[in-house]
Predict the 3D structure of the following.
Amino acid sequence: MKYAYYPGCSLGAAAREYDSSLRAVCQRLGIELAEIEDWNCCGATPATTLDPLLSLALAARDLATVERQGLAMMAPCPGCYKNLRKASLSLAKDEELRQRVNETLGGAKLQRSPEVRHPLDIIVNDVGLDNIPVEKPLQGLKVACYYGCAITRPRGGFDNPENPQSMDRLMETLGAEAVPFPYKTKCCGGAVFLPREELALELTAKILAKAKASGANCVAVGCPLCHLLLDMYQFKVEARAGMTFNLPILYFSQLMGLAMGVDEKELGLERLAVSPASLLREEWTQATA
């Protein structure tokens, strides 16, 4: 299996642990990632709001590069995944719009829109859960699977938009317990964090509180923006809410790497604001006792 890999802006900066852990996991699963040459911003929310045609053109430039590679695209960031997938489908259906976008590009032209997929979809539905080599089962971990509001929401996507199960099934395969979590697709407020920080912190507090109440001792995510709010700002959320959560927030790829025996240095666990070190030692010690 080979995919054109679109890391996007976040995975090269604030979410480097998502990038490194996903690359390590894919390598062990036999998934070859060919990073898109000279990729640019996908034109997510800010560009879409200001100039829809510009947003489409930004996405189309990346799609045109992938088209020349003759591959499907893997986009780990849900914002990138949603925007690129929407652009690909829209441009495939509307020839007039595609012509306008190609005129805007001025260089490489998009002829046929390539398929855009999220790594969860590829791992669960292409690789298959039965083909994931689990060397160190995550026994004792009780995981709240948090999809956020973008991974499963594009129309015609790979999972149920209101009650997705792909990450839950993945965690169970890894030996963890996926706790019932009714807030799995609620918004964390990441998109309004800058203009309305208090609202974003309030929404994040509700998600963390519900995860705690569900019996989780950690949260799995697949979105850099969700991770930023739930992990880096967890201490600020605790102070505002007057509660203590102490919930490590890990990318699903980091948990996969732990279960598959990937070297922890490749997983970037040291970059997490809420360290999972004590939790992992405690749970694995109890599970193997």
Q: What stands out?
A: The longest strand covers residues 2-5. The chain has two domains: 2-117, 134-288. Residues 134-288 form a domain with the Rossmann fold fold (CATH 3.40.50.11810). The radius of gyration is 19 Å.
